[in-house]
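Table S5 (text form). Sequence records supplied for joint modeling of the two-component complex.
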Amino acid sequence: MYSNDTIAAIATAVGESGIGIIRISGPEAIAITNQVFEPKQDKDLNEVESYTAHYGHIVEEEQVVDEVITLVMKEPKTYTKEDVVEINCHGGTVVLRKILDLILNQGARLAEPGEFTKRAFLNGRIDLAQAEAVADLIQSKTEASMEVALDQLEGGLSDQVNDIRQDLIALLAHLEATIDFPEDEIEDFQSEELGARIDTVQQKIDDLLATSERGKILKEGVEAAIVGRPNVGKSSLLNALVREKRAIVTDIPGTTRDVIEEVINIDGIPVKIIDTAGIRNAENQIEKIGVEKSEEYLTKAELILLVVDISDGITDEDKRLMRDAQNKEVVVIANKLDLEHQLELEKIKEILPEAAIVKTAAIANQGINELEDAIANLVYSGKINAQEETMVSSLRHKKALERAKENVSDVKSTWEQGLPNDFLTIDLRAALEAVNEITGDAVGEDIIDQIFADFCLGK
Amino acid sequence: MKEYDVVVIGAGHAGCEAALASARMGCSTLLLTLNVDHVALMPCNPSIGGPAKGHIVREIDALGGQMGRNIDKSYVNIMMLNTSKGPAVHALRAQADKPTYQSEMIRTLEAEENLDLKQDVVTELLVENQEVTGVKTITGMSYQAPKVVLTTGTSLNGKVIIGDVKYTGGRQGEFAATHLADSLKDAGIELDKFQTATPPRIDQQTVDFSGMRIHPGSEEKLQFSFFQDRAEREQKPCWVTHTNERTKEVIESNIEDSPLSTGIVEGEGPRYCPSIDRKIMRFPEKTSHQVFVEPEGMDTNELYLNGLTTSMPEELQVKIIQSVPGLEEAEIMRPGYAVQYDAIPTYQLNSTMENKRVKGLYTAGQINATSGYEEAAAQGLMAGINAVLSLRDQDPLILKRSDAYIGVLIDDLVNENPKEPYRMLTSRAEYRLLLRQDNADLRLSEIGYDLGLLSDEEYQQVRKKDTAITDTMQYLDNNRITPTKEVRATLKDLNSGGLKKPVSLATILARPELDYQDLNLLVDDLPEVKPEIAEQIEIETKYRGYIEKQMRQVEKFKKMEKKKLPEDIDYSELETLRTEAREKLDKIRPVSLGQASRIPGVSPADISALMIYLETYKQDADDEEEE
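The corresponding structure-token record, covering 1086 residues in total, follows.
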């Protein structure tokens, strides 16, 4: 049993914005804030109404620490179902830390990561699916994955899963009604209709499961490897993308001997960019290791950023790389736009007809935005949109859906074998239970309520 | 003052089973009824069994109860329903000859050594320190008993309603138990109002059957009891007709006289026996509803109009009935009516059927917010058994959801506090493939025998059956057939597919088109077994995969049942629980985490919180042990 004490933490990401929030939750939240908050108008926070904002200062030994607005929310209608206070202050990291220290000195305990959510969950404020989404939210590094998490929090996933759930309940209710009321005039399912209804549920589960792959991309990011023969400007490109000089850029081929990784944010997608050594038949031992790594990444990475030198034209080595990348998502970067042109883009299209081609002059930061757009387009495939689509991003949900999928396919095979209807209900129920693990519902009376809602039964 | 071990109040289907179980287990038992002529009365429909209910009757039989044996001696029509829908939901149903059903039950009660049957009206439950000591009756008699089983049916504060007429009565033409309700309240027991209703009965001499569909009984010999082989009985058919637009018009134009509009009946009625008024108002697009015309007995002219339940004024009942084809000239013998009565919210009930507030008081049947003769009988049996076990300081008999429909029934009651009279449905039993009506004896008769409710002979019969099944299954697994020309030809004759390599007989029997007897054509030494044994073997081989799947589900369920909740938890102190969950858990006080998870209003989050609590509780207990 966790102790019901008062917890506090900085609720905004450190150092990212001008305004920071400190959240305090627990029975002493208001009293503790009252100790360090001096309202502009003379009032006592203990006595104000719930959901009110109060302007004033945080003070330490009569010294003003920061000018703040304090929000007071009283239990039970709060995120944690406990008393919650949020202090909105101006300060950067230093001021936020200072205020948090003051709060902690008054008897609050520093919240563990996710503890507010844990309380919300334990107090029955949010269900398990929502709690898990918040956990993702806390861990998600970019806005796009945050949107997925938020969508899930607001019930986006619950909506989709509920839709599947309702299908299962309706099927069960019909089958059960004909079993429990054999003499009532309920039309038995025509076999084809039953098969079609099973297929529909199966399809919905498959569709939702398919999003779990995209859920993974957004949360963990995309791995993109920069490949190309030596000295085509891979490192300059990485630098341009990262916008700080990390990789060493020289004119001597083979300077980048090891693999460099950087995570960058492209339109909200975390993209892990791997800069590899130039790929060619290396003799230098150290460089050879780098080259092997490059080839390894060429097979491993989800996205290939293939760099060619626009001033050199297409070499045999370029062609070999292009062929190696044929089965991958590829963006061909025609670099060194600033130099004299040699390259015929048609030659690239012959080998990689689908690939996006972007012209850049990495050294001069030209074409970098276009490159970012091309990457984002590929990842979203022009279809993915976090705001509209629900994604299954928690492993537990995925597992539950996979079980439901298996159960429904067992139902289908029972149906194909032509077994009596009762046997269909066994796996339908199992599927319903799996889905309920996501929504947190119990099976119980739902089916019976549905039976009486749908059919005029009873003599 | 006369002393008994157990006093049973009420001699309906619950009371009879409770009293018989108690007496047969060796306790001196008194059975009190408002009217000895109404023992085991069937005041509503004349049938016993059907989906889930038939399962319950067989379970009662396997435990040593009376209902199955009694209907076998008194049916006028018997059939197996649902035969195309899978073995788990086959449902045996009989129409009773009502007078015979009663007289056979009275005979059984009278023949029971430890049992006294008396007519009297109980006015007071005698309670000392929240523990039962006996009962007092309207004539001033008192009987002492440490255990009392209360089966009041619809009599507790009962009111009969027809149209705008409402009078005190437990059933039409019968007393109500009014003082007893006050006495229960004084003892701290809460009461709720429930209602139910019954259709009019008509004279068969005024019915034209020519346009109706006939439902004859089964030609195959059928019976409920596993134990006493009964002679086949003469059967009478049931008939089916339909309501029409005119019926609808009559009801719609007089809806202001329906209790739906007048609100004269208090309490919630059952959804599965809706009145015809309710059906027509709720499903206006349906212009035709079935009416089953069923005999009330072999030698009576009364017919039961199953499907035309109503408590409208009698003159409207006439109009409704006469709008139906075949019933144009029908004369009512007894009008339909509604009855409202007191029942106890079931959170006051333990899984043993004992009341949580008054020790030694057990309740069963409609007083526990249920409906149905079978549901009542099952509870009566369990209440009687547990009253005796408690008297002897023995462990109670609590059947799990994976043991029996009776287990599902009582578990639902204890956890759900029904808001309408509860009826058993096969869809309530999540492990129903294992809880079949054909294997109730294999599941439960050991318990009946251990309690002393089944004789040696009866139990040996089940043991023999069990052994024969095991042996024959082994034979089928161990013996193979090879795809000889002859075998292939035989299979072809049986409309079965080919055979490529040698397989066990069990594998062959798993083919849907083959039955046990067909194997005789393939092998010479097939063990000869009774049809009920062949049936078990066929189910076990044909549906093995599904049965195993359900058994795995049962294992999972049992794991949660094993996570016990300490008796002394103060839920009001558990602030991690939502308020609703705190209240529900405190009221119901589940014994396990599994049970807690079945209480409506307890969310998965609450269950997680309870799990966390259990972990720390265990740790604390461990720490204390170390100290």
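Note: Residues 466-549 of chain B form a domain with the Arc Repressor Mutant, subunit A fold (CATH 1.10.10.1800).
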